[in-house]
Amino acid sequence: MNMKRAAVFFILSVFSLFSAVSQSANSDLDSISQVMVPRDVFIGDSGQIQYSFRSPVDLFAIAPESKKDADVLELNLTADDFVTDPESCTVTRAVLTRNGVNYNLCITIIPWKVGGIEFKTFDLASFCSAAGESSGKNTGVQAAFPITLSSVTIASLSEKLQVFSMKEPLSPVSLPGTNYAVWGAGVLILLILIGICFVLARLSSIIEFVSNLKERFGMYRNLCFAKKSLKSLLRKKIDDCEFAKRCQNIFRTYLEKRFCSSFASVPAARIVSRISSLTGNSLSGKESETLEKLSALFLRTDYIRYAAGSIDSMLLPAEEHKAEFIDGEKKSLIEMSLNILDGLECGTTEGK
């Protein structure tokens, strides 16, 4: 009687164990899901196969530490490893994530063919243990973890858009006002080219013109500076000897820049002959009169500078022989100097 009871108890225990295992297997089977993101994937697009499942097996425990990042594990999974036709798609990334006993396998693919893509069974455990070092070869892990993905369908973009033939090419579309802008740019470029050709053809004349213009501007500045310096002498409180000296220095500086020759050591009596030689003795009658005035100015200022205290300065009448300026003579001398400058500029400029 006891033997019968023991046999019944053993049979009931085995039946309960198989029932529990069967219930656990059915529960894990119900927890498996697979989705395609996005649902409609076309050729050349990037899509994700998200395969979720529950398992008490710690797949991260067999993975190398260098390949794990918290609960994320990169897998070296290629199309050759699990796709029936490897030419139908390219695997760009495979990642396994976990949350407790819940796992999510995310495989990113780029399909190259329209229609269904079939998958073959592969061992996820071997890829976890390899973790990117190989293409999923068995590394000695005894417990295999087979994964079989459901097939996915790649949609046809032409069928969705109902377009089954190539459209005729459209003619170029021009924006409003484009023609005017193009023609305007063409005319502008043509004018620039004509201007460049004109400049190149007249380059020597242009260089000569610019050189003459620069020279005339320099002469004008020299004249203005000399006139300004002469006028400022009347406002300075200096003796007659210093006045005469500065007046001569102003003229010598002006003549040196005007004729590009030094006049610093030329005596007053030779000023006229020096200018005549520099101009090629081609002075007109009016120009000669201007030079005579210039000579008289230098002789008068020389007399003021060097005749002070001499016997000549004591001759009568005193207003003609004393070595100093009479009343109003300085002003008259400056006015004559300004006229001489104008005469030199007009005469030599016309001569050129």
Give an account of the 3D structure:
- The protein folds into two domains: 30-159, Immunoglobulin-like, CATH 2.60.40; 218-351.
- Helix 6 packs antiparallel against helix 7 (240-259), helix 6 runs antiparallel to helix 11 and helix 7 (240-259) runs antiparallel to helix 9.
- The protein has a six-stranded antiparallel sheet with strand order 1-2-6-5-4-3.
- Helix content is 50%, strand content 14%.
- The protein has helices spanning 2-30, 79-82, 124-130, 157-161, 178-201, 203-233, 240-259, 271-278, 285-306, 318-321, 329-351, and strands spanning 33-37, 47-54, 68-69, 72-74, 89-99, 102-111, 115-117, 122-123, 146-147, 152-154.
- The chain is rod-shaped, with a radius of gyration of 56 Å.
- With 352 residues, the chain is an alpha+beta fold.
- A hairpin with a 2-residue loop joins strand 5 and strand 6 (102-111).
- Keywords: Membrane, Signal, Transmembrane, Transmembrane helix.
- The chain crosses the membrane at residues 180-201.
- This is Oxygen tolerance.
- It comes from Treponema peruense.
- Residues 1-27 form the signal peptide.
